[in-house]
Amino acid sequence: MINPLTRDPISVESLMRVVQSPERGGTCVFLGTVRNDGDVTGIEYSAYDEMAGTEITRMLDEARERWPEARVALQHRLGLIPLGEASIAIAAAAPHRTEAFAACRYVIEEVKQRLPVWKKELHADGTATWVDPSGKTVAGGLRDR
Amino acid sequence: MAQVTVRFFARYAELTGCDTAAVAVPAAATVNDVLDRIRETVPGARSLPPRPLAALNLRQVKLDARVRDGDEVALLPPLSGG
């Protein structure tokens, strides 16, 4: 088993080992990495840990109901993540690629809708902004919480 | 009366200056009643949006969901995981 929430760098190989088997000939991996939007130096991720863990279990159970032959594993990293490093990795393996892609896509879209995780962008000038996916950002985030 | 624990996260924790608060609400109160009580008792909570995302015992709910003694209500800023 892999802890779905970690403060350490994500190991994609470990995640793949959880889902791969000789019967599953297609493996799909999604990586979300910290993007350089202008002057962003890193992103600090925080979570409602208990609920995030519960939601991840629910999402993976749902994927398993929809694609019974697929196996999906997910890990989300928390804390300060530098540019270019992965904040989330999802590995899905299935007998054929169609199910692997579908299960992987399902889980990342559910993560975006349901996972109680928040990101604060840290800027080169020392300021920070909370990210709101609806497009609004809120200035004045405290850097040291 | 029902004793409810309220948890604040991310930007909402910054607005209220705290991570948790305990409130007492009448039996059969809703999450919205808990929110009203929080706005009265927690400094900074008046800055919360009128209808924030909320979870009750680790599951997202609408604001008209009923709370019971010992429940945990969480107020969730717009989610941005992934």
Layout of SSEs?
The complex is a heterodimer of chains A (145) and B (82).
Chain A: E1 5-6, H1 12-19, E2 26-33, E3 40-47, H2 49-66, E4 71-77, E5 79-82, E6 86-94, H3 97-114, E7 117-123, E8 128-131, E9 137-139
Helix pairs in contact in A: 2-3
Chain B: E1 2-8, H1 10-16, E2 20-25, H2 31-41, E3 53-56, E4 59-61, E5 72-76
Parallel strand pairs in B: 1-5
Antiparallel strand pairs in B: 1-2, 3-4, 3-5
Question: Key terms for this structure?
Answer:
heterodimer; A: 145 residues; alpha+beta; Aldehyde Oxidoreductase, domain 3; five-stranded antiparallel β-sheet; 3 helices; 36% strand; elongated; B: alpha+beta; Ubiquitin-like (UB roll); 5 strands; 22% helix
Give a written overview of the molecule.
The complex is a heterodimer of chains A (145) and B (82). The mean pLDDT of chain A is 93. Chain A has a domain at 5-33 and 49-117: Aldehyde Oxidoreductase, domain 3 (Alpha-Beta Complex). In chain A, strands 5-3-7-8-9 form a 5-stranded antiparallel sheet. A 4-stranded mixed sheet of chain A has the order 1-4-6-2, sandwiched between helices. Chain A has 3 helices and 9 strands; from the N terminus they run βαββαβββαβββ. In chain A, strand 7 and strand 8 form a beta hairpin. The longest helix of chain A has 18 residues, at 49-66. The two termini of chain A are 30 Å apart. Helices cover 30% and strands 36% of the residues of chain A. Chain A is of the alpha+beta class and 145 residues long. The N and C termini of chain B lie far apart (39 Å). Chain B has 2 helices and 5 strands. Chain B has helices spanning 10-16, 31-41, and strands at residues 2-8, 20-25, 53-56, 59-61, 72-76. By secondary structure, chain B is an alpha+beta fold. Chain B has one domain (2-76): Beta-grasp domain (Ubiquitin-like (UB roll)), CATH 3.10.20.30. The mean pLDDT of chain B is 96. At the A-B interface, strand 3, helix 2, helix 3 and strand 7 of A face helix 1 of B.
